[in-house]
Design a protein that fits this description.
Elements lengths: L9 H10 L7 H18 L7 H11 L7 H16 L5 H23 L3 H22 L31 H11 L5 H10 L19
């Protein structure tokens, strides 16, 4: 006797993956597999299908093989989570990976609409929670490479030759400043020339120099 859509489950799918032949897929079984993928898509559309109840209502209303069968529709949501988010069919792992995926999507959205550093800080907390779920799914301590904890190399210099680059013609820069920047206070021009390495850099100010004056 041929099986109905509601008779198939993950055991049938795993058995077919191991031993099945593509030309011999029963129509109702193909519909079952397609429906699992459709449910996966709905689970990822949290903007439209925000809860399992919404998905169940959709399934029992619009899917002919599940009409009125809320129990089987609910079971198929669990099967979709199990199949697409767990390689070893572990329920805990499947749920952890699904939650991690949803949090990462929320993080990407939060970063996209962030307007300041405070928004970015809030977004990173979402990402941290996602990492915890993935950690729980693997049941192993997260290992980060040692290089991530090394202090980065920082170079502060206007001398481009230190970075294997050619310096600009400082004499030309000085001539341009003298000709075009005439309304700026002399101390400001002197500071610009020091930063451009045209004049020697003064590390200590003279006693009569007031840093509050231009």
């Amino acid at each position: 006797m041929a099986k109905k859509l509601t008779d198939y489950n993950l055991s049938d799918l795993y058995d077919w993956i191991e031993m099945g032949q593509p030309p011999n897929v029963p129509q109702e079984f193909a519909t079952y597999v397609d429906l699992l993928d459709k449910i996966r898509g709905m689970l990822n559309r949290i903007d439209k299908f925000g809860s399992n109840d919404v998905i169940v209502n959709h399934l029992v209303t619009f899917e002919p093989g599940l009409k009125g069968n809320r129990i089987r529709a609910t079971e198929m949501i669990s099967e979709a989570l199990e199949y697409f988010y767990s390689q070893k069919s572990l329920s805990k792992k499947a749920w952890c990976l699904w939650y991690a995926t949803q949090l990462e999507k929320a993080y990407n959205l939060a970063i996209a609409i962030a307007k300041n550093t405070n928004d970015i800080d809030k977004a990173t907390k979402i990402l941290e929670r996602s990492g915890k779920f993935r950690d729980m799914a693997e049941s192993t301590e997260l290992q980060l490479p040692d290089d991530m904890f090394k202090k980065p190399i920082k170079i502060y210099s206007m001398d481009m030759s230190l970075m294997d680059r050619n310096n600009e013609d400082r004499q030309a820069i000085e001539m341009w400043l003298d000709e075009n920047v005439k309304d700026v206070p002399l101390k400001t021009i002197e500071a610009i020339k020091q930063e451009a390495l045209i004049n020697p850099v003064k590390i200590f100010k003279d006693e009569d120099e007031n840093p509050r004056k231009s």
